[in-house]
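During the reporting period the student researcher (J.K.) took over the structure-prediction task from the postdoctoral fellow and processed the backlog of single-chain submissions. One of the processed entries is reproduced below for the supervisory committee.
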Amino acid sequence: MNITRLITDPIDVNEALGAIADPECGAQVFFLGVVRNEFEGRASQGIFYDAYVSLAEKELARIATELHDAFDIRHLVLVHRIGDLPVGTASVLVAVAAGHRPDAFRAAKEGIDRIKARVPIWKREHWVKGPDTWHDDASASHDVE
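J.K. obtained the following structure tokens:
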């Protein structure tokens, strides 16, 4: 079973754990990415995530299919949150269930790596000091006092 979602509400960790629960699976790997309070040494108070929603949803589903084809896994949940998220808020979740841990760990790692590389989601950092900037803005100064 695959669950892939792009959401605006808080990530429901218990729902994800329930979705991968299976007595035939001896391994469950769970990754939860949260908004941290700094980026490259600069203090942050949160992030705004934006997305090309229809394409992001399709790409999440494509990644789920690829992971099932590449690894011996039974259940997979890929969720990414969009909108304004303060520090400490969960932004991305990858949950995998498999018969054994090697495939579960590899699928989870590959899942988050593919989400970061391919899903059209962008981050605008809300700095403690200075104006907000998009992460790909090369002109944004890191020396704001």
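The committee noted the following: Confidence is low (pLDDT under 50) at residues 139-145.
J.K. will present the remaining backlog at the next meeting.
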